[in-house]
Amino acid sequence: EPEVTQTPSHQVTQMGQEVILRCVPISNHLYFYWYRQILGQKVEFLVSFYNNEISEKSEIFDDQFSVERPDGSNFTLKIRSTKLEDSAMYFCASSAGWGRDTQYFGPGTRLTVL
Amino acid sequence: KNEVEQSPQNLTAQEGEFITINCSYSVGISALHWLQQHPGGGIVSLFMLSSGKKKHGRLIATINIQEKHSSLHITASHPRDSAVYICAGPNYGQNFVFGPGTRLSVLP
């Protein structure tokens, strides 16, 4: 069964450093998403991406964040200058359609900012 | 502000019990998703509902559009059902709104 993969599974970084989280969505999916979950809190939407551009983003997704689909298979989330409060689990997801279509989630990347 | 609420927050059951988890949502959510988050953190999509009822194995999900309420039922619960169950929905578009989750523990 096709699945969404994410790398790395755990990333530790120093405050102020740039990190890139990588995701490989399911190959025939057209919509891609990033979510984050701070430990003990609910999952929060960050951004959705379709047709090589951002479709929608939340208030969390400020200028420090960017997304890219560099090569037609990978979907990346970059945090330019990490802050302590960026420590969270980051989930990538993909779907064939949006809204009413099932989203398939990756296993997550746990980001720890020291 | 569009919100998704769940009850109960925590639920402990004995193996074999019938379990119900409830979700209420405010206007703007066009379809409701039920997700399962395993103890290791991974998230699996269980159902997407825009009307009526869906069944998959021992899981049943129902939705009442007029009342903006959905329920997830687990029949003959098993310890492997222990997880956090989350309802979520697209808020007028692709901005998903998530509930806080219901932590279920099924004891043998």
Helix and strand topology:
The complex is a heterodimer of chains A (114) and B (108).
Chain A: E1 5-7, E2 10-13, E3 19-24, E4 31-37, E5 44-50, E6 53-57, E7 65-68, E8 75-79, E9 88-95, E10 104-105, E11 109-113
Parallel strand pairs in A: 2-11
Antiparallel strand pairs in A: 1-3, 3-8, 4-5, 4-9, 5-6, 7-8, 9-10, 9-11
Chain B: E1 4-7, E2 10-14, E3 19-25, E4 32-37, E5 43-49, E6 52-56, E7 59-64, E8 69-74, E9 83-90, E10 96-98, E11 102-107
Parallel strand pairs in B: 2-11
Antiparallel strand pairs in B: 1-3, 3-8, 4-5, 4-9, 6-7, 7-8, 9-10, 9-11
Task: Explain the overall architecture.
The complex is a heterodimer of chains A (114) and B (108). With 114 residues, chain A is mainly beta. Chain A is built from no helices and 11 strands. Chain A has strands at 5-7, 10-13, 19-24, 31-37, 44-50, 53-57, 65-68, 75-79, 88-95, 104-105, 109-113. Chain A is globular. Chain A starts with a strand and ends with a strand. Helix content of chain B is 0%, strand content 58%. In chain B, the strands form 2 sheets. In chain B, strands 2, 4, 5, 9, 10 and 11 form a 6-stranded mixed beta sheet that branches. Chain B is globular, with a radius of gyration of 13 Å. The N and C termini of chain B lie far apart (41 Å). The mean pLDDT of chain B is 90. Classes of the chains: A mainly beta (114), B mainly beta (108). The A-B interface holds A 31, 33, 35, 37, 42-45, 48, 50, 55-56, 58, 89, 91, 93, 98-105, 107-108, 110 and B 30-31, 33, 35, 41-45, 48, 50, 86, 88, 90, 93-101.
